[in-house]
Amino acid sequence: MKAAQDCYPSRVGKREEILERLDPVIYDYSEPISPNALNQHQLQQFEQDGFITLPDFMPEMVAPLLDEISRMKQSMAGREELVTEPDSHELRSMFALHQHSDLMDRFSRDQRILEIVHQLLGSEAYLMQSRLNIKPAFRGKSFSWHSDFETWHVEDGMPRMRAVTVWLMLDENTEFNGPLYVVPGSHKKYVSCQGTTELNNHQKSLKKQVAGVPEPESIQQILKDNGLVSIKGKPGTLVIHECNLLHGSPDNLSPWPRSVLMMVYNSVENRVTTPYSGLKPRPEYLSSADQAPLKPVNKD
Amino acid sequence: MKAAQDCYPSRVGKREEILERLDPVIYDYSEPISPNALNQHQLQQFEQDGFITLPDFMPEMVAPLLDEISRMKQSMAGREELVTEPDSHELRSMFALHQHSDLMDRFSRDQRILEIVHQLLGSEAYLMQSRLNIKPAFRGKSFSWHSDFETWHVEDGMPRMRAVTVWLMLDENTEFNGPLYVVPGSHKKYVSCQGTTELNNHQKSLKKQVAGVPEPESIQQILKDNGLVSIKGKPGTLVIHECNLLHGSPDNLSPWPRSVLMMVYNSVENRVTTPYSGLKPRPEYLSSADQAPLKPVNKD
């Protein structure tokens, strides 16, 4: 299948430039119909900032998920879904967790989360990616500034901005353990990056991203009105994060790991086609072949 | 001259261990005799934490010093006293500033600073090192956990813990631009590090220190009672920092540089001898050959 018209060209060998977002941020602004949906104030905040933090959202899930992760580190050892740090053999990320664990699968379909996702995307959604970022104590390395959408568009073929990442803090996220830095409002701009994409770029980029990282001047320009925010919180805090939000995170020099469990939801009306890079698609653990709408699971 | 008995062995090819400090933290606890000296409360804080932050100490010096630095970047270009970042050609540190600038020389002998230094060291002092750390926006890399004293002892031959670093913030130091992390109270322990020291180690260590970096287990143990503190403040804030305080700092991912001007004062009763590593001394810009007591300069 040939990729459709490219509304968001990036890494196409041109000079970097900042484009306007062409898509809505929120696809369904109607009144909440469930207690889990975001209220109008929260929706406005998400629209404006491109993210929202919900403290104490599911603290009861933290211990069981951490146990499950310990188990999965053993059971998934040696698989390509496990990515190590650039400078050491410590685990940096694990992917496709929902395919290897019933608990992770149920978490990804938790009704409390899916109702918000459906509300923001204005449609049903499928799980494009599940991921644990570990940021190990002392050795966890930084993530460069980037928009997830830019990568998903160029390398996976996501056509439009109609996806969100929902992530749960499994450790306390503090100023010391490499918290996520975001540029509020940056989701309304799109940096069409310079350069091109190498074959199998993901093998490097999951350790340290280079292609698709905006130049300092672009970041400066986007950042000048709104500054930076670091997302901190206790374990059990949920964060919802628009697909095009500019974000990065520093090294973790501290003795405290920073594990966050991330689920990427893409609208079923925005299913990926072929990568806009023209290269072959990335592995299935980065962009799921299963694009069926998710069925919510109740808490009990 | 042969180095005296080694009270603080490190990198001597043994297993890492944590030793007790053998020296006082403050050498003169008598009542302040000048308005610039620290009061008893501040002395106690320094004794306990190993550092003290003095906001708004010399804000009037920031602009002239920044101008001077701009000039010196040109006039010192190409000299070995200029150290670049490990991953780029951006400037990371500049040394021996007082030898290349009258303003820097006068700053290093500012009476307001020297009175505190004399008080803490209980003696006159000489300027062992002057240094600017730049931590450039976007590209400034982390500094590993270390005690300055450990390096000065092993690589420069500083016999005992009787030195302080005084540093002035030339930019605002925030949570985002790679602020200094310190472990309060860590100056009372000494990590005798494993390994040995390579010849010309400083050529690498000034970009990224490896030898003399305690193992995570040692840092955990020292840190478990007091946690971490990040030192933040406005330009013009002065920080005094005991020579054996465990510290490090993360990347600077932000668009704001973090320049700090550092002066290292060593007691004239603690002059360096030969390096305890047994290797040849480091260059003069890291440990000054001029060990004459500093003469204070008044502000005007």
List the helices and strands and how they pair.
Two copies of one chain form a homodimer.
Chain A: E1 17-20, H1 40-49, E2 51-54, H2 62-75, E3 82-84, E4 91-95, H3 102-108, H4 111-121, E5 125-133, E6 143-147, H5 148-156, E7 163-169, E8 180-182, E9 189-192, H6 202-205, H7 216-223, E10 229-231, E11 238-242, E12 246-249, E13 260-267
Antiparallel strand pairs in A: 1-9, 2-11, 3-4, 4-5, 5-13, 6-12, 7-11, 7-13, 8-10, 8-12
Radius of gyration of chain A: 18 Å
Sequence stretches where pLDDT stays below 50 over 5 or more residues of chain A? none
The count of helical stretches of chain A stands at 7
Structural class of chain A: alpha+beta
- What oligomeric state is this? homodimer
Q: What is the tally of beta strands of chain A? A: 13
Describe the global form of chain A.
globular
In brief:
Chain A is 21% helix and 21% strand. With 300 residues, chain A is an alpha+beta fold.
Q: What do you see in this structure?
A:
- Two copies of one chain form a homodimer.
- The first copy, chain A, contains seven helices and 13 strands.
- With 300 residues, chain A is an alpha+beta fold.
- Chain A has a single domain, classed as Sandwich (Jelly Rolls), CATH 2.60.120.
- In chain A, the strands form three sheets. A seven-stranded antiparallel beta sheet of chain A has the order 2-11-7-13-5-4-3. Chain A has a four-stranded antiparallel beta sheet with strand order 6-12-8-10.
- In chain A, β3 (82-84) and β4 (91-95) form a beta hairpin.
- The first copy, chain A, is globular.
- At the A-B interface, α7 of A face α7 of B.
